Amino acid sequence: MKLFVIAAVLAVAAAAPSSYKPEYKSPAYAAPSYSAPAYAKDNKYAGITVTSQSDERNLDGSSQWSYAQSDYMTREESQVQKKMQGVAYDSYGKATYEDVMGNTNKGSSYWVSPEGEKFTLTWVADEQGFKPKGDHLPVAPVHVYELPVAPVHEYELPVAPALPYKRTGLGYSGTSYY
To answer: Can you tell me the mean pLDDT for 118-124?
Structure first.
């Protein structure tokens, strides 16, 4: 009982507000002897604002988002989760092929270059890789000529002629050395 009374008195004493107020004086620093560098603000894009924006995230792992700016630049992208054939590694490093969940993305982007040229880029990224499409992207040349083919020779290989078989050697000459 005495222990309980002592603990209660200590709890009340610890909870009581203290009248001690420390006075904190911030240290006085001397003013710098150099002038801070002046950075030129880039006003090149000051007039561009975002005119629309959306972002949707779904419980099934799919999502889609888009935005548009006052300079006519737009971008939209969507993502869907699906089962794909993937490689999984066990604790020993052995690879096994099994179904894994992966993302497939598709989207598009539109912008106007400083020279006034309009660009549109669309893409798909799935289990077959990233596949962009756009008129401004380089295209591999198409061969309009037939590629040379190595000549095929139709001939028979020479075969050694068959000789008559004759037994010769020790014991076959009719005389014996034993």
So the answer is: 94
